[in-house]
Amino acid sequence: MNIFVTGGTGFIGRHLVRALIREEHFVYVLTRDKIKIEKLDNAKVIPIEGCLENPQSYRTVFDRNIDIVYHLGAIPGQKLGIKETDYQKINILGTQKLLEISRQRIKKFIFCSSINAISDDNFQDDLYGKSKLESEKLVLKETSFETIILRPAIVYGPGDINAMFLKLCQMIQRKKFFLLGSGEKIMPIIYISDLITAFLKVATISQNGQTFEIISPEIISTKEITELIARNLQVKLPKIHIPIWLARSVATLFWPIPFFFRKDPLITNHRIDILTKPKTLDGKKAQAEFNFTPQVKFADGIRITIDWYARNGFL
Fold first, then answer.
1. CB atoms inside a 10 Å sphere around CB 9
2. How many CB atoms lie under 10 A from the CB of residue 100?
3. Alpha-carbon distance 306 to 233, whole Å?
4. Domain spans of the chain?
5. What is the pTM of this model?
6. What is the spatial distance between Cα 186 and Cα 221, in angstroms, rounded to a whole number?
7. Does domain 1-152 have CATH number 3.40.50.720?
């Protein structure tokens, strides 16, 4: 098949592109930088130089008889210093333009959303999650092709250098990490290879207009996660737990940092929410509808991930 991937140079996207190559598909990858794609050195990967904000930059790709669009491109995660208008421009309007240009040209549109699209507080301090939900609404309105939405939990694995787990490992290694509250909150996670399996599986099923949460069935708390990381790094965790009210006070104090110094503070209200607030999720639908069963236990996945970090100079 001919497949168009946005966000193909990011953490998840790179793994997806490699998996599609292994399945002998021709993969067209939207990128601002062709060099990142050329490094894959595979004739079945064709870089399309452009960006989501400018549909004219990638319009001609649909002359290649594209069968499936995997839309992963977005401003990833909640980033301080990124304005609401930025999320609207890239995540929401970028999705809208891609949907419009795909009409009558493709068979299936697979959208990578996030569990952040589920909110219990109307997206307070989570512009990213809000933008993902608004994008989902646009996807589900489409009628000219099949649509499927995946909401991955917190993704980790080799190659993840911009999200939560590398920062967490580095802080634990440097003995700068302290548990917030009791640490008993269950952490929704998914290993990268399991997520890629889900992406490949939904390309082969007919489940138009469906949304699936992609999450490991493993019940593991923040405390257990940090203990396993510390064990792999051969360090001891501090026994001190920081009260959540104190952490929020510090986060509020530090929130202007990115606006003045262009650097993310170590602690933000959004990160506090990730580590302490429960979120109601259900991976059973994916298991029932397309037989998705995650295979990688966290103990194995984090060992592989930490080994990759160490070999590549991040730890």
1. 23
2. 12
3. 8
4. 1-152
5. 0.91
6. 4
7. yes
